[in-house]
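Exercise: predict the fold of this chain.
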Amino acid sequence: MISIPNNIVFETERLIAKKIQLSNAKELFELESKEEVVKYVTGKVLNYQETEEKLKKWITNFDYEKGFGVLILHSKKDKEFIGICGLIGDNEVGYRLLPKHWRKGFGTEVLKGLITHASNLGMKYLIAEVIKDNIASVKILEKLGFKFLRDQTCANTGMPEYVMELIVKER
């Protein structure tokens, strides 16, 4: 079991990753209502009610005490909402960022934080499923050492995707 002081799960140089709360619904809606964000994840823009329902499921269905779940990302500098990330499912890692925060190194930074978090939990490997056309995320995964495992079709979008794996080193 991990301790979650102030709901903070991990920090990076510029980001704070906290357990997501019902009070984050407005921020999550800002993310889930942007087509350019969900295009490679679910393929479906959500309205506010759907976003709240998704948030409630996440809070109920994930095991935050063991380190698994969706986390909300804020800037350390000004507490601005950046996006979400988390360890989900069977060792799967993922993140989504608001478009205004793309190309600023946050994707790499949050994945490094998730890798360290996974290592601290004793996880031996991580999996990432990424739509092939999401070239920026594919490059980040490759840069951080994820290796291609197989091709598959994304269950949510029907788009072709890669399944990539990282063997987690003890830190």
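Check your answer against the key: The longest helix spans residues 106-120.
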